[in-house]
Amino acid sequence: MTEPTPIETHSAHWGFDDHRYFGHAVFEELLGRESLTGLTALSILGRRLPPDACALLDDAAVSLTLADPRIWPLKLTRLLSSYGSSVAAIAGGLLIQEHARIGPWASQEAAELLEAFHAELGPSAHPTRVEAIVRNHLTKHHFMWGFGTPFRERDERLVAFSARMRQRERDQLPYWTLFEAIAKPVVDQRKAQPNIGMGFAAACLDLGLRPQEVGPLTTFLMQHMFFAQGVEGARQASEGLRRLPDESVIFVGSTSRRSCLHSQP
Amino acid sequence: MNTDETSSPASLDGPLERAAFPEQLRARVVTPGFRPEVHGYDVEDDLARHYGFVDLVILSLTGELVEMEVRQAVEVALMFLAPVSVAHASVHGAVVSRLCGATTSATIGVSAIGLAEQARFELTAAEPLLSWLKRAEGPVPDAFRARSPDERATVARLLAALPTRASKHPIFSLDPAPQAACLAVLHAAGLERSDQLEAALVLARLPTTIAEGLAERPVNFAKYPIHLPPFHYRDPR
Question: A251, A257, A263: which to substitute to probe chain B, counting the most B Cβ within 10 Å?
Answer without folding.
Answer: A251
